[in-house]
Amino acid sequence: MKLTTMTQVTIDGVMQGNGGASDEDRRNGFERGGWALGKGDDETRAFINQTYQCADAFLFGRRTYELFAGSWGTMTVQDAPAWEPVMRALNTRPKYVASTTLTDPAWPGTTVLSDDLASAVADLKAEPGGELQVHGSGVLIRWLLENDLVDEMTLIVVPVVLGQGARLFPEVGPDLALDLVESRVDSKGVAIQVYRPAGRPRYATP
């Protein structure tokens, strides 16, 4: 399987609290949750729905898993008719959680990966199928990138600057070159950018 990631971010790189006003949105004093609600047009919604349908399995960090389990894991088609493909994919396909603290996941179809995560993810990628998808899970995405386990990453960039909140990439961290393989901007100014990791960047010589 190809390991792919999809992350909604602001112009200043914030990924925290895109969807609403949960306790997660407000951690560390964050007060600007829900910044992605209603921002994309019908084509962007269709792109997200189609992406979830391409997943053969999902991989989450613990925090995102618990958020998804408490929302998508409890929904019916009537709760989110525009997002039925997302809901069906999440509730019917295998889910894996990278966690050393989660012991009894309540969401059916969940397996906890608690030991030797690099080997476990490599084994999953070696299985036949289309995509092993990672949504949210910023800490996990950074770890996967550092360990050369990401094949493709999609950023959905919402045209807003928050000025606070957890960012996808910290101020200090490893560097990475990316090849842009797809780019589009919808009618509401939301940009979808698909990248593939391409080793380390080149820098100007002294």
Secondary-structure topology with pairs:
Layout lengths: L1 E9 L31 H12 L1 E7 H10 L12 H9 L2 E4 L11 E4 L3 H10 L4 E5 L2 H9 L5 E7 L19 E8 L5 E7 L9
Parallel strand pairs: 1-5, 1-6, 2-3, 2-5, 3-4
Antiparallel strand pairs: 6-8, 7-8
Helix pairs in contact: 1-3
In brief:
This protein is an alpha/beta fold and 206 residues long. The protein has helices spanning 42-53, 62-71, 84-92, 117-126, 138-146; strands at 2-10, 55-61, 95-98, 110-113, 131-135, 152-158, 178-185, 191-197.
Q: How would you describe what is shown here?
A:
This protein is an alpha/beta fold and 206 residues long. Helix content is 24%, strand content 25%. It is built from five helices and eight strands. The protein has helices spanning 42-53, 62-71, 84-92, 117-126, 138-146, and strands at 2-10, 55-61, 95-98, 110-113, 131-135, 152-158, 178-185, 191-197. Strands 4-3-2-5-1-6-8-7 form an eight-stranded mixed sheet, sandwiched between helices. Strand 7 and strand 8 (191-197) form a beta hairpin. Helix 1 (42-53) runs parallel beside helix 3 (84-92). The longest helix is centred in the N-terminal third of the chain and has 12 residues, at 42-53. The radius of gyration is 17 Å and the shape is globular. The relative contact order is 0.24. The model has no long low-confidence stretch (mean pLDDT 91).
